[in-house]
Write a structure and sequence with these properties.
The protein is mainly α. It is built from five helices and no strands. Helix 2 packs antiparallel against helix 5 and helix 3 packs antiparallel against helix 4. It is elongated, with a radius of gyration of 16 Å.
Length: 118
């Protein structure tokens, strides 16, 4: 007989969508994508290395944000090494996302977001 454990889905998602995770995860993974593209070029192996390294660094820095794992793919597929990409759209977009989430989750609701900042 197989017993299934109830999913904690929303709880797990909330932990990965805190400001540190969003900003840090996107920044780290975009930086990895830029470095892989700059030093190794494009290709299937490079994309896999970029995503794997980005995930490992996000875990190391406790800033895991699953959508950020796609950043190395986007950067390597685009094929343009421009380090200003880290400022805009990566950091600017992350801050706009956080501000939007602050407004949506704290205005007129009984919930408080974020659970933690750092």
């Amino acid at each position: 007989m197989l017993v299934e454990e109830p999913s904690r889905g929303l709880e797990d998602c909330i932990a990965l969508a805190q400001p540190r995770n969003v900003i840090g995860g996107h920044f780290l993974s975009a930086l990895v994508g830029m470095l892989v593209l700059h030093f190794m070029g494009t290709g299937t192996f490079e994309m896999a290395l970029g995503v794997g390294t980005a995930i490992a660094l996000m875990q190391l820095f406790r800033a895991v944000h699953p959508p950020a794992g796609a950043n190395p793919l986007v950067i390597i597929l685009a094929g343009t090494v421009d380090y200003t990409f880290l400022l805009t759209p990566v950091l600017a977009g992350s801050f706009i996302l956080i501000l939007t989430a602050l407004f949506i989750n704290n205005v007129g609701t009984g919930r408080k977001w974020p659970v933690y900042w750092v």
